[in-house]
Amino acid sequence: MSRRRRKRRFRLKLPAIPRRALLWLGGGVAVVLVLVMIVSLRGSDPAGALARAEAFEASGNHRAARVEAMNAVDHAPGDEAAWRLLARSQLALGDGTAARGTVERARNAGVPPERTRHLMAEAMLLMGEADAALAETENAEIDPEFFGEAARIRGRAFQQLGQIQAAAEAFNIAIENDPESAGLWLDIARFRLTTGEQAGAIEAVDEALRLDPADIDALILKGRMARDQYGLVASLAWFDRVLEIDDRHIPALLERAATLGEIGRMRDMLDTTRDVLALDTGNPRALYLQAVLAARARDFPLARRIVSLTGGMLDGQPSMMLLQATIDYGEQNYEAAIRRLERLLEFQPANRTATRLLGAAKFHAGDMPAVIAALGPLADRPDADSYVLTLVGRAWEREGDFERATLYLSRAARPMRSGLTPLGAPPEDAAALALIQRDAQGGGARAEVELIRAYLALGRTGDALARAETLRNANLGAPDAHLIYGDALGAVGRYGDAAAAYASAANIRFSERAALGMFEALQRAGQPEEALRVLSLFRQQNPRNIATAMISAQLNLQAGRWTQAAAILEQLRLRLGDRDAALLANLAWARYEMGDVDRALALARRAYLLLPMNASTSEIYGWILADGSSDPELGIAMLEKAQSLAPDDPQIAERLAAARAGQT
């Protein structure tokens, strides 16, 4: 009987791995890849792990720093520097629980507690234990090397507990002891943002980046602040810098995705959210952004399905509440939308988007008094948009008050105002004004702003200007103080000074309000070219902004640039639909001047049906009918109606005369 020759098998000798790990990996190729990764990470030089960890930390790659720090601790359990670096990397990654465990193990390994109290306190802070963080650093021995760090963490803990003065004092102590700490200046930037000192926050985050240009948290905060200070487009560069350091950094990817969506780059936004989901399956923020995309495309069933995938993890956040209400409204589930929006406005009573949507939902639900209550304050503002004015006017019509309805509907088709006039209606009576004055005496910039607005609305411009100047001088780092000062200067006719005040606000936060205020002030000051430059700059950074797009379209219409005006208005129509009479009327006029009479007529008719008792919509519809259609008699009738609604308008009278002359 012959013996079978046994085949020899050659095996690659590799470090041992537990058998269950091999089963979990499920394949020889995967095993080899993982082993190669392990060998490369641990390296043949474990003694160099600490140096590599320090290099990764310096470059901002905290994940790699954590891995190498773990290797360093394994190689030299008594190395204090390795333990502290491991804890720092865990803290940088937001893992307070792991950092706390690391500090405890370090102390057990012989690291003195006084050299780790600042790390333990920060870990506790990340775990939401602000009181414990203060206790860890209070009346305790702390190595002088880390005294500044301990004071910094105390400042953060006091801030978290709402003790603003104590937080400021702690941060001042930290600056005295460790002024070259990038992390300290980053915390100070965040603190100043919470207290409304935005200019100081900008200085602080810039100092943090001067000290550590690769600090990822500082870069992200700078990106967020650049979004306010300069605009959406400018902020992208900061998020891209983070991704150059760590292309798997999920918070930076999410910030980038949200910004891309705001500037209209929807495909890039979708691709970025997919990158996030490839790294973190089921990431609720990425899913939320995808649901926003679906809602903008008016695919509300898809948006609802995507929201369901978040598992309710964002349901209490205002942005998600607004999105869910938008989906309810889009699916004509108005009562559900109303419930969500009323809850949202309890937390954010100044949320204008939510207020507008609530008013629209109430209108469709048939509750006209509720529409007036919700949207009346917005409609009474000088910067009220056509849709809000139309809803309030229609609500008063259905309530039978046609005189009030006409006041709102007559404004609905006019170009949007920008805002050198007071924001808000005047107080109803002396008692209401006295209440506002009492609140202002109690202190607080917000109450003071409300009093200045009340004075402006009442025509007490001298009182308003004096208080606004005092407020501005006491809050030079707060953009809102400069804005209300600009309003007061404009109200007394000092338009050049008003433009300078709005520019000061814009240098801190280039908001829509600052841009529009500066635009109007410069126009009134006789500087139209500079006004256009401001408008153009804001639109470059915020291409989806509705208010500035409407103004830009109006300027193009006035200059006879019909194609440019039509392009802007068509984009707005895609986003807003056919509910804005001013938009439709202006687009009809542009199309008519371009020679597209049939399309212009359809648009003008739609605008007229939205506001049949409005002089502007009647005029445009009538002129296009009279001049370019087969029914000039109806056109003359529309122009006669427009003249009856606005008997002192010379343009309407001129067009009516021309239409009648064309019939003779």
Note down, in words, how this protein is organized.
By secondary structure, the protein is mainly α. Among the domains are: 413-542, Tetratricopeptide repeat domain (Serine Threonine Protein Phosphatase 5, Tetratricopeptide repeat); 549-664, Tetratricopeptide repeat domain (Serine Threonine Protein Phosphatase 5, Tetratricopeptide repeat, Alpha Horseshoe), CATH 1.25.40. Helix content is 74%, strand content 0%. It contains 38 helices and no strands. Helix 3 packs parallel to helix 5 (80-92). The N and C termini lie far apart (125 Å).
State the shape.
elongated
Number of helices: 38
Helix content: over 70%
Number of strands: 0
Mean pLDDT over the residues: 86
Spell out the CATH superfamily of the domain at 413-542: Tetratricopeptide repeat domain
Head-to-tail CA distance between termini: 125 Å
Structural class: mainly alpha
Which topology of the domain at 413-542 does CATH recognise?
Answer: Serine Threonine Protein Phosphatase 5, Tetratricopeptide repeat
Sheet with most strands: none
CATH architecture label name of the domain at 413-542: Alpha Horseshoe
The fraction of residues assigned to DSSP E strands is under 5%
CATH class of the domain at 413-542 equals: Mainly Alpha
Tell me the Rg in angstroms.
32 Å
Contiguous uncertain segments of 5+ residues: 1-44, 415-424
Compact summary:
The chain is mainly α. It has 38 helices and no strands. Helix content is 74%, strand content 0%.
What order do the helices and strands come in, and which of them pair?
Layout lengths: L18 H7 L2 H15 L6 H11 L2 H14 L4 H13 L3 H13 L8 H10 L3 H8 L9 H14 L3 H14 L4 H13 L3 H14 L4 H14 L2 H14 L4 H13 L3 H14 L4 H13 L3 H9 L9 H13 L3 H14 L4 H13 L3 H12 L6 H13 L3 H11 L17 H12 L3 H14 L2 H14 L4 H13 L3 H14 L3 H13 L3 H14 L4 H13 L3 H15 L4 H13 L3 H14 L4 H14 L3 H14 L4 H14 L1
